[in-house]
Amino acid sequence: MKTVQNYCLVLLVICSTNIHAQNLKIPQPSTLQTIQQDFGLGQITITYSRPNVKGRKIFGETEPYGIVWRTGANAATKIKLTDTVTMEKHQVPPGEYALFTIPGLNEWTVILNQTAQQWGAYSYDSTKDVLRFKVKPGKLDKKLETFTIQFVNAFVDHCDLLLLWENTVVSLHLETDVDARVMANIDELMKAEKKPYYFAAIYYYNHDKDMNKALSWINEADKASSDAYNIKYWKARIQLKMGDKAGATISANEGLKLAMAEPNAEYIRLNKEVLAAAKN
Asked: Which domains does the chain have, with CATH numbers?
């Protein structure tokens, strides 16, 4: 009977240990990061794990040249596009992809693979590649301990995606054809009962379109909301761009008065900027 009791006690300890082991949470040495960038009319999302140098020689040794790399640690790096993007002049349709690279001393190969969910590059299958191209790596002035992916020079229709680690940087130029689609959308919405006068005028201003049309639209927006200091501001901006300094001064003064009544510090400053520019 005592033997049976001892056996049950040992079994209970083993089961308890297994339960606690299953619940044990420890930090991953390579931390997980997700970054997201609005781009054109869509978004780009990248999820990757970030290894550290830890005193090692990385490229050419820890990550050998000529070997497919997961571009991070743990699971393969994933990049998700909600819209069509041109990457280094190669068009990529919307979807989620694994981002692999093949490091080299003077040249890197960048790969987008349709199998987004995979661990490392152990099951990498080149027949599933949707894109492959080569780029030249650059040198960092200062050693970077943690592998980093980031967006820089981010504009509406173009940006650069950087892969940075140790003393190496790889830059990928991304573009998206957004203007034609926005213009078509504006044309279509202008046929509707409720027309996007305000935002259409701003788009025309920011992208150097037909300023006469932009002015007519902002005037329509002004008629509908004559006490809106933001509309007065953009009307002044459009007038100033068209060379009508007197009209811009009138609109900006109206906008300034309305902004000061609220008060709204941002539009007080913005309307004052137009007034200063109109004096030059």
From this structure: 31-175 (no CATH), 179-279 (1.25.40.10)
